[in-house]
Write a structure and sequence with these properties.
rod-shaped; 97% helix; mainly alpha
Length: 146
């Protein structure tokens, strides 16, 4: 065998090995490109989903803020209502206390005393007016005699 033939065979073997390796690399590259496209699609879908999730989170935060404001408003109204209940209970207790027979009797006694005082004052004023009328009649009568 000639040395060129041996070198040619060795070169041919090397080229075949390189061709086989290149075919393996090509298959791996095609497989990697396919997997990359799949992952890009997943990322795109997830990005869309992520954008939707972020928008949902923002809407949820806005809704939560509105609800918290509403809760504060309702708590303030509830506090006012509690104060009103306390005031009404106190007024009711006072009214219930005033509605006892003893309280009614004492209120009637006070009213009778006020009325007696007014009657006495009216009697005094009537007496004073009567005396003035009598005085004026006397004055008129004395003036007629002159």
């Amino acid at each position: 065998m000639r040395p060129e033939t041996a070198a040619f065979r060795e070169l041919d073997t090397l080229v075949r090995n390189l061709s086989d390796q290149l075919a393996g690399y090509r298959r791996r590259a095609l497989s990697a490109e396919s997997r990359t496209r799949e992952l890009e699609q997943l990322v795109a879908e997830r990005d869309g989903t992520l954008i939707e999730v972020r928008a949902d989170a923002q809407r949820s935060n806005q809704t939560r803020a509105l609800l918290e404001a509403k809760v504060r408003e309702l708590e303030a109204k509830a506090e006012l209502a509690r104060a009103e209940v306390v005031r009404v209970q106190a007024a009711f207790a006072a009214a219930a206390e005033a509605a006892t027979p003893q309280a009614v009797d004492s209120e009637l006694a006070r009213e009778n005393e006020r009325l007696r005082t007014r009657l006495a004052e009216a009697g005094e004023k009537t007496t004073q007016l009567g005396e003035r009328v009598r005085f004026l009649r006397q004055q008129i009568g004395h003036g007629a005699e002159r």
